[in-house]
Specification:
Blueprint (H helix, E strand, L loop, with lengths): L2 H9 L17 E12 L2 E8 L11 E2 L2 E3 L7 H13 L6 E6 L3 E2 L4 E10 L14 E6 H5 L5 E7 L2 E10 L2 E4 H13 L2 H10 L1
Length: about 200
């Protein structure tokens, strides 16, 4: 799938369902992440980062560029773009923002808003070692294939919730990042597009 096809599928409909959030009732802090899509050989890839092991929150996990909302951020898009620039050197002027998805509540007390953006030009990675250990890409088509997206049900404090799991090569993507990827894939799926076309 190239950039043009992705834009078309993304814009065809509004998302009707939300990401299953963590069943928690605690004060939350606002955060936003960027879902950065970059085209390679006419195929879109999702750019992901791996967090360093020294971090107190989610050490070693695969994530999107992003973080907590700061006072100077005018909205969720500004937060996601600022964090992407700080973490991997991606300039906001190099991102075509397509929109954002519903907020996801996490067990660690964050309300995370995913922002969808296409990287317009190749750029030089400038990794902040305090926030990012590694940066890599995965073909979007890999995630679109349903057999590569897994779900498991777990109990926590007497409540059942869903955890998303997506192994890729020697990496293991799970939690909020995997839930957001699943949401993105469902949003642009051919089934959704076909349903909209037949209902018109």
């Amino acid at each position: 799938m190239d950039k043009n096809e992705f834009r078309t599928r993304y814009s065809l409909h509004r998302l009707s369902d939300v990401i299953p959030s963590a069943p928690v009732k605690m004060p939350s802090r606002k955060a936003a992440v960027l879902i950065p899509l970059i085209e390679k050989n006419q195929q879109l890839h999702i750019l992901l980062t791996q967090r360093p092991m020294h971090l107190r929150s989610h050490p070693g996990q695969i994530s999107f560029p992003g973080g907590k909302t700061e006072q100077g951020d005018k909205d969720d898009i500004a937060t996601a773009l600022r964090e992407a620039h700080e973490e991997i050197g991606l300039a906001s002027s190099n991102v075509e923002v397509l929109g954002q998805f519903p907020t996801h509540k996490t067990f660690t007390g964050f309300d995370v808003t995913p922002v969808v953006g296409i990287i317009e030009r190749p750029f030089k990675l400038v990794i902040d070692p305090g926030e990012v250990q590694d940066c890599f890409t995965v073909p979007l088509q890999y995630f679109i294939q349903q057999e590569n997206r897994h779900q498991k049900r777990f109990m926590r404090n007497g409540k059942e919730y869903t955890v998303y799991l997506m192994p890729f090569e020697d990496r293991f993507i799970w939690g909020v990042t995997a839930a957001i990827i699943d949401l993105l894939c469902r949003h642009i799926s051919l089934d959704n597009v076909a349903n909209i076309q037949t209902s018109r």
